[in-house]
Amino acid sequence: MAEKKIMYRQRARKVFGEEKYVVGFVPRSTVSLHEIAQRISRDVTVSLGEIEAYLEEVMSQTKFSIAEGTAVNMGDLGTFYLKTHCKFVENEDDVTASNIDRLNVGFRPSPSLRKAMRNGKLERYQPAKASTSKKGGKE
Q1: Count of helices and strands (H, E) across the chain
Q2: What are the φ and ψ backbone dihedral angles of 61, each rounded to 5 degrees?
């Protein structure tokens, strides 16, 4: 079986009003929770339904914990945590919750996941000829 490569393309971004290009990754597909549960069920003696219920509960508890401001360490996967996007202020005393524009979820991969990603093989994405999108990967 041929080794799957990680697909990438260039993406245009405005940086201080000037257009620049960066690498954007192109997902091959999306895997659902059900598909992951099916993969797990091939290797263990637990039923598919029990695996799906367990994974749903893991996700539920992860969301609940992050919403409370608790970081969630998922072992060799990494850590999910709450992060903020906020306005800068001049004085320390001016830092308040009203400075927060939005909350988001951050993810910090584990050292073992980072190491695994270093071994990834990259290949430039070549869209179908019919595509006329500026984001399609043309040189």
Answers
A1: 3, 6
A2: -70, -35
